[in-house]
Amino acid sequence: MEKIDRSRLREVNSDVTQAFDQVRSQVDELVESLDIGGMSRKLESFGREKPVVLAIAALTVGLAAGLLMRNRDLA
């Protein structure tokens, strides 16, 4: 059985931690730039003004997702 070099293991662990930190900061920047809160407020006001249109859009998206999932199962 091979001996585990603990210093090398710490280096790899540190590299992984740094990579996760970079990804997390980039995702945080992306979320901030998308203004999710503003989008949800706009969607909510649109849904209050035109609930039938929102329901039809939701149904369409749901049907499309279902078809994609079904086709993926067949492949």
The quaternary organization reads as single chain
Mean pLDDT: 84
Q: Can you summarize the main beta sheet?
A: none
Query: What is the general shape?
Result: elongated
How many domains? The number is 2
**Which structural class matches the secondary elements?**
mainly alpha
How many extended strands?
A: 0
Give the helices and strands as they follow along the chain: HHH
Query: Helical segment tally?
Result: 3
Radius of gyration: 23 Å
Q: What percentage of amino acids are in beta strands?
A: under 5%
The N- and C-terminal alpha carbons lie at a distance of 43 Å
Chart the SSEs and their pairings.
Blueprint: H1 6-34, H2 36-49, H3 51-74
Helix pairs in contact: 2-3
Describe the overall structure:
The mean pLDDT is 84. The protein folds into 2 domains: 1-34, no CATH class; 40-75. It has helices spanning 6-34, 36-49, 51-74. The protein contains 3 helices and no strands. The chain is mainly alpha-helical and 75 residues long. Helix 2 (36-49) crosses helix 3. It is elongated and about 65 Å long.
Summary?
The chain has 75 residues and is mainly alpha-helical.
Q: What brief labels describe this structure?
A:
75 residues, mainly alpha, 2 domains, 3 helices, 0% strand, elongated
